[in-house]
Every structure is written in C-alpha cells, then in structure tokens.
C-alpha cells in the first residue's frame, strides 16, 4: 500500500523531502502540501513536475482524509503546533528539528504522544542514519579505542542570513550535535558552558559567531563543539573521539583527490543538502517502512525533548557565561527501544 503524505512547509528542505519521497524512495507519494507562501508551494510542485493538493492552512493538510502521515518542514517555531495537531488526528508525523522551541514545548508533544498510547512522532535528526556516524559509533561500541574520554567537534556553515540570531546557533544548528552525541556516546549531558571567541567580521549585528560549547557528560566525558556558521569556506562537520586506547574520527565525505598546478586537493562540500543526502534518504525510508510495519523506530519525541533540555541549558549558559546544569528526567518506559 502506498503511504499518502502531506507536507507542511515547501521551502528548502520541504522541497528536498518532497523530491525524495516522490522520486527516490519506495512506498510513499505526496498528495497534499501547504505553505504560508502559497505561490511558492505551487511553484515548487511545478519545478518538481508533481501534482498535489495545495492548502493555505497546514491544519487542513493534517486533517485531510486523503493524508495518512505528515512531514513538518516549516520554520522552527511552527513545529510543535503541527506535530500536536498530527497526534490529535492520530497520524504519524515526521517533524524536522527542533521538535519545539523549548523543552517545555517538546514535553507537551511527549505527553500528547504518551496519552495517545502509541509512537507517532519521528524527529528529523538524520545524523544517526549517516554512514560515517554509524561507522564511528561501531568503532566506539566495539571498544576499539577503549572508553571515550573527550570529543572535539565542529559544526560549520559557510554563511547564514541576517535573520539567524545568536540563540539559533543552539536551537537550529547545535541541536544536531545535542542529539547525535548522546546517541554516539550512549550518555547524557550533565553541565554546559558557552564561550564566545572574537566575533568574525562576516557575522551580522544580531549574531555572535563563532561560539564554543563545552559539555561534561554524566560519565565524565568532556566535549567541545565549535559552532561557526559564517566560516566562509564550506559546510564542514567534524567529530573526533579521543579514547583510552586511540582516537576515532568521523570520515570525510568521499571526494576525488586532484593533483594539479602543483597542488594536491580535495573539494569541500558547501551545502547540508549534499553533505547528508544519503542520510536524509535513509531516515525517511525508515519512517515510511516503519509506518507500514506498525512501529516507529527512529529518533523519538523523547530524543527531541532530551536535545531541547540541553538546548535550554545552552541558551541559559549563553546569557550567564557560567557552567549550567543539564537536568534530564528519567526516560519513560514508553520510549524504551523494542
Ligand atoms: N535536518 C536538517 O539537516 C535540516 C536542514 C535544513 C532545515 N531543517 C529544518 O527544516 C525546517 C525548514 O527549513 P528550511 O531550510 O527549509 O527553511 P525555508 O525557510 O527554506 O522553508 C521553510 C518554509 O516554511 C514556510 N512556513 C513558515 N511558517 C509556516 C506555517 N505556519 N505553515 C506552513 N508553512 C510555513 C515558509 O514560508 C517556508 O517556505 C526548519 O525547521 C529547519 O530547522 C533541517
Ligand atoms: O537548518 C539548518 C540545518 O539543520 C543544517 O543541518 C545546519 O547545519 C544549519 O546550521 C541549520 O541552520
């Protein structure tokens, strides 16, 4: 049976996900879309050569009898509302990160899902589906470098628009590390501090860039993450795990090595769309397959909540400059993995 999807938000990643669900993946078709920019939504469908019902209001997509499941790919502050609406309609929903703007908002989603009694939410944390991160996790869990002691990470974007503010470095960018590093180390955060280096001249008035975020985990691992969203040179994700017996590094995306004009070079990607293209395919195919198998298994509303608990502490640490506690309540049995 083909799963009929409704997509709310037809901007950059909305269009990417519509394309992959319609043209790359198996078992789903996009039957309805919505965007506050209606013309943009229509133009996106035309560009992709697709036909779907276009609604002015996202809630009409959620409640359409033609729609079996939702993809929420609109702006960050709209995610909670549409995800709660999908749960109220009893429909599975893939919600792009962050699940909500605060831990409190994520908790409302968790509570609504638990009240419904069955998992309906997958959060768009794609890095656990990335082949490089999976290989890195295997090295760690196989004990090849001994117990992890330190992680050195970087999340660099070439540039961001003026609408991107200091807090978004946490809620929209670091949120990926907040999820994937918990998954990678099988650990939770205990404290966090945010340090601001000299600001790049390429930044905007409302953005302090770069930032360094320092964590201590419950097991005592120390993690530093550099967030640098106007790094200029490319889209670059780094993760190095220092263990008791050795060091493991996230593989670079494969690229052709060139020898030319007395230079040895490999190119660096510039766009998240390309860096994680395979991971997005795998995460959404898993969502589609899991729905037909009756149980969602991907990043859960609890994972979205856990990341946002840490994000709230990071926001506090941005303001205070102090070391702030990260307090995650115990995970309800509802979210135990099968
Ligand atoms: N997982 C990832 O790596 C990844 C990558 C990019 C974006 N994202 C997330 O996806 C979301 C979209 O990001 P984007 O880069 O595509 O942004 P974008 O600005 O290109 O697109 C967002 C779209 O949402 C629409 N929109 C805003 N409010 C709406 C509402 N109430 N109802 C319907 N549509 C609405 C906007 O008009 C716009 O077309 C963001 O939450 C972002 O954090 C995730
Ligand atoms: O929404 C995007 C997306 O999540 C990218 O993966 C991240 O690198 C960007 O910083 C963020 O703004």
TrEMBL record:
Entry EC no(s): 1.1.1.18
Gene3D superfamilies, per the entry: Dihydrodipicolinate Reductase, domain 2, NAD(P)-binding Rossmann-like Domain
Gfo/Idh/MocA-like oxidoreductase C-terminal domain span: 137-328
Listed InterPro entries: Gfo-Idh-MocA_inositol_DH, Gfo/Idh/MocA-like_OxRdtase_C, Gfo/Idh/MocA-like_OxRdtase_N, MI/DCI_dehydrogenase, NAD(P)-bd_dom_sf
Catalytic activity: myo-inositol + NAD(+) = scyllo-inosose + NADH + H(+)
Domain Gfo/Idh/MocA-like oxidoreductase N-terminal: start-end pairs: 4-125
Pfam families: GFO_IDH_MocA (PF01408), GFO_IDH_MocA_C (PF02894)
The entry's keywords: NAD, Oxidoreductase
Keyword flag NAD: yes
Superkingdom as given in the UniProt entry: Bacteria
Family: Belongs to the Gfo/Idh/MocA family.
Purpose of the protein: Involved in the oxidation of myo-inositol (MI) to 2-keto-myo-inositol (2KMI or 2-inosose).
Subunit (UniProt): Homotetramer.
PANTHER family reported in the protein's UniProt record: INOSITOL 2-DEHYDROGENASE, PTHR43593
Name of the molecule in the record: Inositol 2-dehydrogenase
Organism per entry: Mixta hanseatica
Taxonomic lineage from the root: Bacteria, Pseudomonadati, Pseudomonadota, Gammaproteobacteria, Enterobacterales
Protein encoded by which gene: iolG
């Amino acid at each position: 049976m083909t799963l009929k999807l409704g997509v709310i938000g037809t901007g950059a990643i909305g269009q990417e996900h519509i394309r992959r669900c319609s043209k790359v993946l198996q078992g789903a078709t996009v039957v309805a879309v919505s965007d506050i920019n209606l013309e943009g939504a229509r133009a996106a469908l035309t560009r992709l050569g697709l036909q779907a019902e276009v609604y002015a209001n996202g809630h009409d997509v959620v409640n359409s009898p033609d729609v079996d499941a939702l993809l929420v790919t609109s702006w960050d502050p709209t995610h909670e509302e549409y995800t709660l609406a999908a749960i109220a309609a009893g429909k599975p929903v893939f919600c792009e990160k962050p699940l909500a703007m605060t831990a409190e908002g994520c908790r409302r989603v968790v509570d609504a899902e638990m009240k419904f009694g069955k998992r309906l939410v997958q959060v768009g944390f794609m890095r656990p589906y990335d082949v490089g991160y999976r290989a890195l996790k295997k090295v760690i869990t196989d004990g090849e470098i001994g117990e992890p002691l330190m992680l050195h990470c970087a999340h660099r974007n070439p540039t961001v628009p003026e609408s991107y503010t200091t807090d978004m470095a946490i809620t929209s960018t670091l949120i990926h590390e907040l999820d994937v590093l918990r998954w990678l180390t099988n650990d939770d955060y205990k404290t966090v501090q945010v340090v601001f280096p000299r600001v790049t001249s390429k930044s905007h008035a409302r953005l302090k860039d770069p930032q360094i975020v320092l964590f201590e985990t419950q097991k005592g691992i120390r993690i530093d993450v550099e967030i640098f969203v106007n790094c200029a040179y490319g889209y670059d994700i780094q993760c190095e795990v220092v263990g008791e017996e050795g060091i493991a590094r996230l593989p670079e995306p494969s690229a052709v090595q060139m020898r030319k004009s007395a230079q040895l070079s490999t190119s660096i990607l510039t766009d998240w769309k390309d860096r994680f293209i395979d991971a997005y395919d795998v995460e959404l195919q898993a969502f589609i397959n899991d729905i037909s198998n009756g149980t969602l298994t991907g990043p859960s509303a609890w994972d979205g909540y856990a990341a946002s608990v840490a994000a709230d502490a990071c926001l506090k640490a941005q303001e205070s400059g102090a070391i702030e506690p990260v307090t995650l309540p115990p995970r309800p049995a509802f979210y135990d993995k099968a």
